Amino acid sequence: MSRPTVTDDQLSRGAALGRVISQCRQNAGLTQAELATAAGISLHSLLKLEQGHVANPGVFTASALADALDKPLQRWVRSANLNGTAGHLSTVGYEGLDLETFLDRLVDLRVEVIADVRLNPISRKPGFSKTRLGEALRSRGMEYLHYRALGNPKDNRAAFAGNEIEQGRLRYHSLLGAEPARAALRDIQSRAARQHVALLCFEHDEESCHRFVVRQHIGQLG
Known about the structure:
Largest sheet: 4 strands, parallel
Structural class: alpha/beta
Shape: globular
CATH architecture of the largest domain: 3-Layer(aba) Sandwich
CATH topology of the largest domain: Cobalt-precorrin-4 Transmethylase, domain 1
Strand content: 5-15%
Strand order of the largest sheet: 1-4-2-3
Radius of gyration: 17 Å
């Protein structure tokens, strides 16, 4: 499986979004470090956004930036091309959120399917383990699916949290060539063609999580 490439359309959307974020930040009188802290994302991630290298940030990242800059979420949704309608793939992380807040945000963004890409869908945070989370999502009209084949191995997680993220991504990338993983990617791609599917893991910042690689690969499937 070849590494994902970035299309001209994605580059164009990324550049447009970067300009919007940079202008809003400057109008608010915030430095990049101050905005990153306020939004709960890494400075590195914000730099990439403002430089136009990210066409589709995670929907919660867009929401956090909108809140930090006191801008309407829908403006950010439009700028990020995250329109919340059928036929869309995005990512979400539940770090720092309680269950009800998490569910409310999903409803606001019109997510229809949660694709859980955790290797083991258990959590110390109340409500985020597989059974209870599935029940809670169904009570809000959403479908829950767990894709164990797309989980990040335990011994590769530290790389995503530190300075070895590129090595971690490369190793995880190599695992996506296995048939169970490829089947899972194809299934998510098929669902995302007709529904708003959100890839779920823990980290708030998707670039610190393996779901970032998952979304890249799904976007490159023929």
